[in-house]
Amino acid sequence: MAIGQIHMLTPLMDRIDRWATSGKAKSILLHPEDFDRIGEKKKATLEAKYNLPVMCLGGQKAYFDWKHRTKSEEQIEEMLMEAKS
User: Is pTM beyond 0.85 here?
Assistant: First the structure.
């Protein structure tokens, strides 16, 4: 079974919990799509629950690259302006 298939079978919150409680975690790394999907309120909740920072896998560059592939140019410019603020 491929990794992508396993990813689709296991709910995100279960994967986060398993990683955060493994004893190996220094942060909660999320795929850019998951990072975008869970929203700021849920990120704050996860950070408080596990006392670990929630970060995008690959950093801000990977997040913006993913957004670029899924958003229009106008939306990207808006995001970059917000990030600089």
Answer: no
69: left (phi over 0), alpha (psi -120 to 50) or beta: alpha
User: Would you say 20 and 28 are in contact if contact means Cβ atoms under 8 Å apart?
Assistant: yes
CA angle 11, 76, 81 (to 5 degrees): 110
- What is the structure's pLDDT at 1? 44
Residue 30 and residue 58 in contact, taking contact as beta carbons nearer than 8 Å: no
Q: Which ranges of 10-53 does DSSP label H, i.e. alpha helix? A: 12-20, 32-50
In terms of C-beta density within 10 A (0-12 exposed, 13-18 middle, 19 or more buried), how is residue 8 classed? exposed
**What value does the mean pLDDT of the chain take?**
84
